[in-house]
């Protein structure tokens, strides 16, 4: 909805649970409907309704009072963005390396969220009652590439469900040390916070961490390194970095999960390449509103392209 208070009214299209029926006809999520019920803002046939599980008949008149969205805590900042796609429900951004996704201790502003609050001003419908972009997944500060962000409550709910059931298509391009043998394969291993260093993730025994699966294949053999594609079956924190390091092929430039091979360090130093060589290159999903399958691709950024060119000679 817009920034102003809005009354959504009409007739229920199909019978069943109230929250589900009203979500279908209003465009709001079921969670948002439940929250508005708790505030006494939903009525059926003129009577306030508070129980989401009650059944309703098709044709029953309804009214939903959607209040003005509260302002987000983060401030809007005019930070340039590369927008790959945008519609009224979501936005796809090609994030540069060095940009933090979400404000947190140590990075209270200058983040992607701050940039989106400026870019999408007046277009955010109040996710959970707050005018903010819906962050359904993140990529590390020093990883570049594609990120989808919800602008509406319905899009946020639909995208979150796809991330939860691992139906999102994601492919990363990475430059790793050495030559993986075999040239393609699958890495499986649960990932959890390291018990030795809380800033790191680590492979742990099954049952303690979150199940994680990465499919990799060689794209190009380089001098002392390899350009690989990693397709994620799951999406855990630092998954590509942890899994590739676990098979002895850490990402070049990764300051946390592996040391760049000695012969290559002078090259990275000369190029000023000081981040993990990782780029979110492909992103595919079912659009949560149109239900169309969409797919987006991003070319390698200049710093990774320059590194790869250097390692070809």
Architecture overview:
The protein is of the alpha+beta class. Helix content is 20%, strand content 31%. It is built from seven helices and 20 strands. The strands form five sheets. Strands 8, 9, 11, 12, 13, 14, 17, 18, 19 and 20 form a ten-stranded mixed sheet that branches. Strands 1-6-3-4 form a four-stranded antiparallel sheet. Strand 8 and strand 9 form a beta hairpin. The longest helix has 12 residues. It is elongated. The termini are far apart. The mean pLDDT is 90.
In short:
The chain is α+β, with helices and mostly antiparallel strands. It contains seven helices and 20 strands. Helix 1 crosses helix 2.
- How many β-strands, per DSSP? 20
Helix content percent band = 10-25%
Describe the biggest sheet?
A: 10 strands, mixed
Instruction: Give the SSE order as H and E letters.
Output: EEHHEEEEEEEHEEEHEEEEEEHHEEH
What is the residue-mean pLDDT, rounded to a whole number? 90
- Tell the overall outline: elongated
Topology:
Layout: E1 6-11, E2 16-17, H1 18-26, H2 30-38, E3 42-44, E4 47-48, E5 55-56, E6 61-66, E7 70-71, E8 83-86, E9 90-95, H3 112-119, E10 130-131, E11 134-135, E12 144-150, H4 153-164, E13 169-177, E14 184-188, E15 190-193, E16 201-204, E17 213-222, E18 225-232, H5 239-246, H6 265-271, E19 278-286, E20 293-297, H7 302-311
Helix pairs in contact: 1-2
What are the defining features of this structure?
313 residues, 20% helix, alpha+beta, 10-stranded mixed sheet
């Amino acid at each position: 909805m817009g920034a102003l208070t809005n009354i959504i009214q009409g007739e229920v299209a199909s019978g069943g649970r109230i929250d589900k029926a009203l979500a279908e006809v209003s465009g709001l999520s079921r969670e948002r409907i439940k929250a508005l019920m708790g505030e006494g803002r939903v009525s059926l046939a003129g009577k306030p309704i508070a129980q989401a599980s009650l059944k309703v008949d098709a044709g029953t008149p309804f009214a939903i009072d959607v209040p003005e969205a509260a302002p987000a805590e983060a401030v809007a900042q005019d930070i340039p963005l590369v927008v790959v796609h945008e519609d009224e429900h979501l936005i796809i951004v090609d994030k540069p390396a060095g940009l933090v996704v979400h404000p947190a201790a140590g990075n209270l502003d200058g983040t992607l969220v701050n940039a989106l609050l400026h870019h999408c001003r007046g277009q955010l419908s109040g996710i959970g009652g707050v005018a903010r972009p819906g962050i359904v997944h993140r990529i590390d500060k020093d990883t570049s590439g594609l990120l989808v962000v919800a602008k509406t409550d319905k899009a946020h709910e639909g995208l979150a469900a796809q991330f939860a059931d691992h139906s999102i298509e994601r492919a990363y391009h990475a430059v790793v040390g050495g030559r993986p043998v075999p040239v393609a394969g699958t890495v499986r291993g649960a990932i959890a916070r390291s018990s030795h260093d809380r800033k790191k993730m680590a492979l742990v025994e099954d049952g303690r961490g979150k199940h994680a699966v990465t499919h990799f294949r060689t794209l190009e053999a380089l001098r002392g390194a390899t350009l690989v594609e990693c397709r994620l079956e799951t999406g855990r924190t630092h998954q590509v970095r942890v899994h590739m390091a676990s098979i002895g092929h850490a990402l070049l430039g990764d300051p946390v999960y592996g040391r760049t091979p000695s012969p290559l360090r002078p090259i990275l130093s000369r190029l000023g390449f000081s981040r993990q060589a990782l780029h979110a290159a492909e992103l595919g999903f079912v659009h949560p509103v149109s239900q169309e399958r969409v797919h987006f691709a991003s070319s390698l950024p200049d710093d990774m392209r320059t590194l790869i060119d250097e390692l070809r000679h």
